[in-house]
Amino acid sequence: MKHKAAMVLAAAALIWPGAPAIPADAPVPDEIPVALLVDLSSGQVLYEREADRRFVPASVTKVMTAYTAFKLVDEGALRLDMPYLYSAQLEDEWYGEGSNMFLRAGERPTIAQLLLGITTVSGNDASAAIAMASTGSLDEWLALMNANARELGMRDTHFGSPNGYPDGGQTYTTANDLTLLGEAITQRYPDLYRSFFGHRGFRWRNIAQDNHDPVTGRVEGADGMKTGYTNEAGFTFLGSAERDGRRIIMVLAGAPAERLRDEASREFLEWGFTGFVRRTLLEEGAAVGMAQVQDGASRQVGLRLAEDFTVALPQDADARQWEVEIIYRGPVPAPITAGDTVARLRLSIGEETVLETPLEATEDIARANPLQRITNAFSRWFG
């Protein structure tokens, strides 16, 4: 059942007169087939293009390798100061293969050094090394990566390597899935994320290399995350920035040229901050309407906002296409406990859903007794 909350729309318009509508075009060239921009502070999608289209992530795979290592560190199963003896077999397989930390057999990098080699210079060798150091088996490491993907809800993702090196199509993902990963690594492990992402360069022995991340140090608040390129995949970027407590995650995939991807990434991320006004339309706890109740002591239950209803919208449009609705499957069966999430408040502009936020019950509603059930039945029959 869907219930329109006209009174909520009126209240929002009073709080924010002349509020804007949905954006026109984002600064993403048509040549880039996949684009997604998400405001993590509200979960709002600011822009999307082919967000569920599968593509090869290439080295962006290493964000999941870093996430998997962060999770093991957080669980106490892996220590950042633990050294790992790099083997001749790994050197034979990975030395000079694509982007590299240039590890040599017999060296003993720590887990922290391997992570910096992954996040800063995109080391294919460092990715393989951390997999073996953590589990002793590439198959076991890949099983962890894929289990983490499932746990995060990355339904259209599979990893066949720890570094995104071409593997015959075993590794694939989508923009929507990568934003789930970006949210998880920044929100679940913020200290580790700050420690290992956003560095402009890295030195191993006498070899100094720069980070190819196109936004860190160039866009205010940007701190990563990872570029990717193969002939098959084109140029890809999973990026992030935070300003004043507001974090934005972005994905561009399939760009035909590195320069095009890099310039578009900077403009896209900056647009996410400067092209929108972020306002709280209704505050946490505000009463927004009623939901019908089935087999309850009362036929309706009040609804209130479980959190602030905050939205980011462009600065140069009007509110004439606004629509705010209370959405729920109903009637809601009793019993209901105050605080239960029983509905959602949805803001749409035109045909686009801009934002949804949970609504909770304002009171307890017990299951109806026999007499109340009879009364409710008669009320339904006679309108």
Task: Give the C-alpha Rg.
Answer: 25 Å
Overall mean pLDDT score?
A: 87
> What is the correct CATH architecture of the largest domain?
3-Layer(aba) Sandwich
CATH superfamily of the largest domain: DD-peptidase/beta-lactamase superfamily
Task: Please give the order of strands in the largest beta sheet.
Answer: 1-13-15-16-11-10-14
Q: Tell me the strand percentage band.
A: 25-35%
Reading off the top of the CATH hierarchy, the class of the largest domain is best stated as Alpha Beta
Shape, principal axes of CA atoms: globular
Through-space gap between termini: 17 Å
Q: What's the order of the H and E elements?
A: EHEEHHHHHHHEEEEEHEEEEEEEEH
Low-confidence stretches: 3-23
Broad structural category = alpha+beta
**How would a textbook summarize the main sheet?**
7 strands, mixed
Features:
383 residues, alpha+beta, Peptidoglycan synthesis regulatory factor (PBP3), Domain 2, Beta-lactamase, 2 domains, seven-stranded mixed β-sheet, five-stranded antiparallel β-sheet, 10 helices, 31% helix, globular
Task: Walk me through this protein's architecture.
The strands form four sheets. The protein has a seven-stranded mixed β-sheet, covered by helices on one side. A five-stranded antiparallel β-sheet has the order 3-2-8-7-6, sandwiched between helices. A two-stranded antiparallel sheet has the order 4-5. It is an alpha+beta fold and 383 residues long. The protein is globular, with a radius of gyration of 25 Å. A hairpin with a 2-residue loop joins strand 4 (201-204) and strand 5. It starts with a strand and ends with a helix. The chain is 31% helix and 28% strand. The model is unreliable at 3-23 (pLDDT under 50). It has ten helices and 16 strands. Helix 3 runs antiparallel to helix 5 (124-135) and helix 4 packs antiparallel against helix 5. The chain folds into two domains: 2-19 and 280-381, Sandwich (Peptidoglycan synthesis regulatory factor (PBP3), Domain 2); 34-274, Beta-lactamase (3-Layer(aba) Sandwich), CATH 3.40.710.
